[in-house]
Structure formats: C-alpha cells, structure tokens
Specification:
The chain is α/β, with parallel strands linked by helices. The protein has 3 domains: 139 residues, Response regulator (Rossmann fold), CATH 3.40.50.2300; 104 residues, Four Helix Bundle (Hemerythrin (Met), subunit A) (Up-down Bundle); 122 residues, Response regulator (Rossmann fold). It contains 14 helices and 10 strands. The strands form 2 sheets. The protein has a 5-stranded parallel beta sheet, with helices on both faces. The protein has a 5-stranded parallel beta sheet with strand order 7-6-8-9-10, with helices on both faces. Helix 7 runs antiparallel to helix 8. The longest helix is centred in the middle third of the chain and has 33 residues. The chain is elongated.
C-alpha cells in the first residue's frame, strides 16, 4: 500500500483529503505544521507529500528546502496546494523543488486522487480499505450503498453551512477589535485571527463546491497574508477593504451558498486612468481575479463607452485630462444604465475632503495609490459578486 503524507494546518481540509485517499487505498497520515511534517516524513517514509504553502512557524517553502536537502528524500514527489494570488510564494516553491503546484480552489478530493495516480501510480492495495480518523472534525466518506462523490459533497456542504454562522460571528468579533486597535501589534494579531478563519472558509468552501465563496476567500486570504507580511501596507484603505470583505461574507452566506448558483456570469469592468503604468496595474490586478476589463485614458472616450455598454463596476482616477474624475462620475450618473453602477476612485488623494467629495458626486468607494494588487482584486470581486448574486440591490 503506497503512503502519502499531508502537511496541512487546517484539520478539516486535511481530513477531507485523507478520507478520500484512504478510501482509494492509500495509507495516509497528517501533520499540522512543517516541523511535525518533517519528523513524520522520516519515520512514515511516504511515496509522496501533499503540502500547503502557508503553515505556522515554518513555511511550506522552507519545508520543501529541508526535504530536498536530505539525500534520501531529494526526489520525493511534493504536491503543493497553493493560493493562486500568492505568485511570489508559488515561484519560490518551484525554485525550492516542488514537483507540482495545484490551486486549492480547483483541487477536489477526487482530483487529488487522480493526481496521485498520475504521480506515483495506484495505491498498491489489493482492495479499497477504510479506517476511522482520530479527530471528531473529520468528514466521513460516503458509506456503502453508495452516495459516492455527490453524497460526499452534499454532506460536506451541509456541515459547512451549519458551521458558517459561528464562523461569521467570530469574523465580526475580530473585525470589531481590529477597528479599535491603536497599535500595529494589536492590528496584526486581529488580522491573523481573521486570516485563520478565512483560511478554513477558503479550503472547506472549495471542497464543498461553493465556488463563489471560495473564489472570494482565496483573494481575501491572500490580502490578509500580504498585510501580515508587510505591516507598512496596513492603512485606512486596506483596513476599509478588510472590513468590506468581512461584511461581504455575511452577504455570501445568504446569497452565495445555493449549489445551483456557483457559476459567475461574465462581468466587464471599465478602468479610466490617463497614466499607462497605473492603468496597467489595475487591469493586471483584475486579470488575477479572472475579471475582464476595458481600459481608457480619456474621460470623453469613457463616457462614450458608458453610453453604449453596461459595465459591472468602474475604477476611476481623479486627476484626468479635460475633466476630473469627480466630473466624470457626475456625468455617468446621469446615464440611465449607470445610475447605480459601483464607482471606485483610485487616487493618490487621501485627505478627508477628497473622500467626502467622491461620495457627494456618486462614488461608492476608494482605493489609495500605490495599492496592493490583491486589495484591488478583493474590492472588485466584492462589487461584482454582489451585483450578480443580488442584482435588485
């Protein structure tokens, strides 16, 4: 029987993967941190490792380097589960010696088994075996009589939805403490609390088939990771985005957990900015969120497009040639199809008077330059998904 070691700090996600691998005949063990994973690897001696990149105390990249530094395990297949927004971390994982990097949001238990078969072959067991897991949070595999994959996912969905109110309450509590925190250390502590819960939401939502929630959680998790890694990026703009994201997950709990509404209809975004570098930075951030956009530098050209086409959200610079972004916002609000289209100002201007003016002319939000790419992606997903899931509002 072939052996697989899972190194994943989220016990629920780890158990879901382990149960599926066990049912398919693989002997599987779990470690919840990098140091424990390395120790278990040396005694368990697996044929492959499934590794999360974000781990406590020791990162997944550091784990890969340690493994590759031991001659006995230098060629051991390492399958990395990654957040697609953490491109630098994924690059480091490849350079450290990862065998394959897979997006968590796309890696169902069934897909992981198929990946294992392609990487190390069949389990080697004469027949499928099952065993009980040692933790009460484990999700049981579908029983005899056969509900199969559909029944397994339906059971996981049911458990996820049942646990969601408590998770959301914890998120709101952590956000309240964050907004009252007046030191960087206190803010980082609460950001980590929010991160831990979103990390679980991300993994379990993806496995349960709640694609829209997983899609939003993937971006939000990456933003929280970035803020913890680079505390200097914590400012009024990023904290505002964190608060909006927490509120958005309450919205998703009501509108985004129907199994038949997990495909996002195509969305289109307009970007108006006369600076080529800034304009490209916005469009690249949207591409990372898999959102299509049209970009223009001239406000008159933008008005022409807006009169001809319906956009889902508009990212608008303030300092434009010929007219200000405020003037453009006032004029686009006069267009029948864009009376309620979300407008987000992207600007260097951060004083209170300018923010107040952006609201007075019909703007919905702002993001301050220089912005984090993933922050803009989070903001875009919030507005696009709100509009698509609840168009009446």
């Amino acid at each position: 029987m072939k052996k697989i070691l899972i190194i994943e700090d989220d016990q629920i996600v780890a158990n879901v993967y382990r149960n599926k691998l066990v049912v398919d005949g693989y002997q599987t063990e779990i470690a919840v941190d990098g140091q424990g994973g390395l120790k278990l690897m040396r005694t368990f001696r697996p044929e492959a490792i499934v590794l999360d990149l974000i781990l406590p105390q020791m990162s997944g990249v550091e784990v890969i380097r340690e493994i590759r530094g031991e001659k006995e395990f230098s060629r051991l297949p390492i399958i990395v589960l990654s957040n697609t927004y953490l491109t630098n971390l994924i690059r480091d994982a490849w350079q450290a010696g990862a065998t394959k990097c897979v997006s968590k949001i796309n890696c169902s238990p069934k897909a992981l088994v198929e990946l294992m078969r392609a990487t190390i072959g069949d389990s080697g067991a004469m027949k499928h075996v099952s065993r009980k897991t040692e933790t009460p949070t484990a999700v049981k595999p579908a029983g005899p009589g056969g509900e199969g994959e559909a029944g397994f996912q339906a059971n996981l969905r049911k458990q996820f939805v049942a646990n969601l109110p408590a998770t959301l309450a914890d998120l709101r509590a952590a956000l309240q403490i964050l907004t009252k925190s007046d030191t960087q250390a206190a803010r980082l502590k609460q950001l980590h609390e929010i991160y831990r819960r979103i990390h679980t939401v991300n993994g379990v939502a993806a496995l349960a088939g709640f694609t829209l929630m997983a899609r939003a959680a993937t971006a939000f998790e990456a933003l929280l990771e970035e803020l913890q890694k680079r505390p200097k990026t914590i400012n009024e703009s990023t904290l505002r985005t964190v608060a909006a994201a927490v509120d958005f997950f309450n919205f998703l709990s009501a509108h985004g957990t129907h199994p038949d509404r997990q495909e996002l209809p195509p969305a289109c975004i307009l970007v108006v900015d006369d600076e080529p570098i800034s304009r490209r930075a916005v469009t690249l951030a949207l591409e990372r969120a898999q959102l299509e956009s049209v970009s223009v530098e001239d406000p008159e050209a933008a008005l022409k497009l807006l009169s001809e086409k319906l956009f889902d959200i508009i990212f608008l610079d303030v300092l434009l040639p010929g007219m200000t972004g405020y003037d453009l916002c006032t004029r686009l609000r006069a267009l029948p199809r864009h009376k309620k289209t979300p407008v987000v100002f992207v600007t260097h201007l951060s004083d209170l008077d300018n923010r107040a003016k952006s609201t007075m002319v019909g703007g919905n939000d702002f993001i301050t330059k220089p912005f984090l790419s993933v922050e803009l992606a989070v903001k875009a997903l919030i507005y696009v998904l709100r509009g698509k899931l609840n168009p009446a509002k």
